């Protein structure tokens, strides 16, 4: 079977969800990961590849990944190939394997950037998380936050995903973050609460060079409250009335 690649665009925000393409291993011209299969696919229309060479993927990807100028092929848990379209990325860097399961890398394109997280479980999933996701201590969840004035990141917003044995699923996505500079996830508090922070633009005079020493405002987001971001330093108690 071939899974459709989905890119949902809302107000200039791009979220890449689900696998680009996956077929049974028996249909591959070679074993998964099949770069030959991916190269036979059509790239997104009207996209001119801006690179003369393929991205350099690290040696520790070799057992599960292959790539060409246009595609990154990932061998999935079910024996299929997940094809990640690289055609409109100018550059890719910080390729990494996260735990024993996920792959990820930073990308940049024409006035755009993001982070691609790849889950080879099941038939494979590709998610543009905007920034590198932060995983909970027990590995049950991951979260990401990314916001820019231009709104040209791959994913712009705040999201929390649950991790299952054969898939991942969003439990919360918010693309209407308060207009603050340098949103970041500071840490998880167990599996059900996040500590975040950001800086008001007025505090740095709208000068990003002042961010490094700026005082940060602190927020929490908890599953108890539906992952709504609220001002404060303390996570709500599980037994709160």
Describe the model.
Keywords: Signal. The protein is mainly beta and 241 residues long. The chain has a domain at 6-133. The chain is built from one helix and 17 strands. The strands form five sheets. Strands 6-7-8-9 form a four-stranded antiparallel β-sheet, with no helix packed on it. A four-stranded antiparallel β-sheet has the order 10-11-12-13, with no helix packed on it. A hairpin with a 2-residue loop joins strand 7 and strand 8. It is globular. The termini are far apart. 33% of the residues are buried.
In short:
The protein has 241 residues and is mainly β.
Which secondary structure elements does this structure contain, and how are they paired or packed?
Elements: E1 6-10, E2 13-17, H1 35-39, E3 65-67, E4 71-75, E5 81-85, E6 91-98, E7 102-109, E8 112-119, E9 125-128, E10 134-135, E11 141-146, E12 157-164, E13 167-174, E14 181-188, E15 193-199, E16 217-222, E17 229-231
Antiparallel strand pairs: 1-2, 3-4, 4-5, 6-7, 7-8, 8-9, 10-11, 11-12, 12-13, 14-15, 15-16, 16-17
């Amino acid at each position: 079977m071939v899974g459709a690649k989905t890119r949902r665009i809302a107000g200039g925000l791009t979220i890449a969800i689900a696998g680009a393409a996956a077929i049974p291993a028996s249909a591959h011209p070679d074993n998964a990961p099949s770069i030959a299969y991916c190269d036979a696919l059509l790239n997104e229309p009207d996209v001119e590849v801006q690179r003369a060479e393929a991205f350099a993927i690290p040696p520790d990807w070799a057992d599960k990944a292959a790539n060409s100028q246009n595609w990154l092929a990932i061998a999935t848990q079910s024996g299929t190939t997940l094809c990640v379209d690289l055609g409109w990325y100018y550059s890719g860097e910080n390729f990494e394997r996260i735990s024993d399961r996920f792959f990820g890398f930073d990308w940049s394109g024409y006035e755009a950037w993001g982070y691609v997280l790849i889950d080879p479980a099941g038939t494979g999933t590709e998610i543009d998380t905007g920034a590198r996701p932060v995983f909970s201590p027990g590995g049950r969840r991951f979260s990401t936050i990314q916001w820019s004035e231009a709104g040209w990141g791959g994913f712009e917003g705040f999201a929390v995903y649950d991790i299952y044995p054969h898939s991942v699923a969003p439990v919360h996505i918010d693309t209407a973050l308060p207009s603050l500079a340098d949103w970041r996830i500071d840490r998880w508090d167990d599996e059900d609460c996040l500590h975040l922070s950001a800086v008001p633009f007025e505090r740095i005079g709208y000068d990003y060079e002042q961010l490094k020493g700026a005082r940060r405002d602190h927020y929490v987001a908890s599953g108890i409250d539906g992952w709504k971001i609220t001002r404060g330093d303390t996570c709500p108690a599980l037994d709160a009335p």
